Amino acid sequence: MRSIGGLVPGTDARTVVLVEGPSDRVALETLAARRGRDLDAEGVRVVAMGGATNVGHFLDQLGPAGRGLRLAGLYDEAEEGYFRRGLERCGFGVDLSRADLTALGFYVCVADLEDELIRAVGVAGVRAVLAAEGELRSFDLFQRQPAQRGRAVEAQLRRFLGTRSGRKSAYARLLVAALEPDRVPRSLDAVLAGV
């Protein structure tokens, strides 16, 4: 059987949450587990598409013209156009606004997932997570690099999380675990509440 977005035809998925990459998937799955939800048992699959440019393919394969599954999604602000065009092309509406995308179950991360998590956890909280992982010294050295001087610490943290393969996913899990229940980013909270 051919796998489409990690789904094998004939599986019991009823809802698919389309996300850009593995760190988004990890964040949603971690938050769901924190809330006592078993997405697999509920028939909800979080599918990392390998980038926003692939959304049209996944909508074709999994949406109304394909498997007919219920769809939702999470996307970075800069990638909104890909989601809008993909949803319009698949018949979900025309001239879709951000509010329309939200009504369809697709939520924006401003500016991206890492930015949302850094704001929600706070600089001190992120530094505490880095310290617990033994990476605070590495971050402090990173901040001293010429390209980082003069940048806001939030921007430095965001860049640092993307400097090593697998770090974004690792910290997506750690930062979601560190969130206070009332500080969950709206996009993460809303997409999970809707599925």
UniProtKB/TrEMBL annotation:
GO terms for molecular function: endonuclease activity. This is ATP-dependent endonuclease. Residues 13-60 form the OLD protein-like TOPRIM domain. Keywords: Endonuclease, Hydrolase, Nuclease. The keyword Hydrolase applies. InterPro entries: TOPRIM_OLD. It comes from the Bacteria. It holds the Pfam family OLD-like_TOPRIM.
